[in-house]
Fold this sequence. Notes:
Helix content is 17%, strand content 34%. It is of the alpha+beta class. It has a domain at 34-138.
Amino acid sequence: MEVHRSDSSLGAVTQVVTSQPLQRLRDMLVHYPNVILYLCGHTHLPEVVEVQDATRAFAFAQMDVGSLLVFPQEAAIVELLLEDGSTEVGISAHKMGAMLAPGSDLASRVAESHAASFQDAQSRPRYSDWRDYSGRKSLPVFPVGVAKYEL
């Protein structure tokens, strides 16, 4: 994502837009109907985006759980579920954080990190924070026959 600010450095965020490289990647992934999930990270901005194809149908989920090292210090368990005879793949994700002993030195450092992040526009989630996610995608007809995507 591209973060646009009111000045050239640390001014107020005026706009957040999908970067051209990310849009090209999304376009490429949408081109292939057998893509179900795109896991990404290192943005420190936890989000789930349900990407749609040209017909506005669900194409795939783009999921970023955040970062284990800095706020929000979270990870996720993600499962793809295919039941016998089903024509859909289920996507299930549950986000979790570190288990810290209350009152420990590490817990106080994490609390400091959380407090500092709320002062930093680049660390605050742009979208509502998520705990659980579930989605479903219809299976394409196999074998999938689509022309190669041209970069």
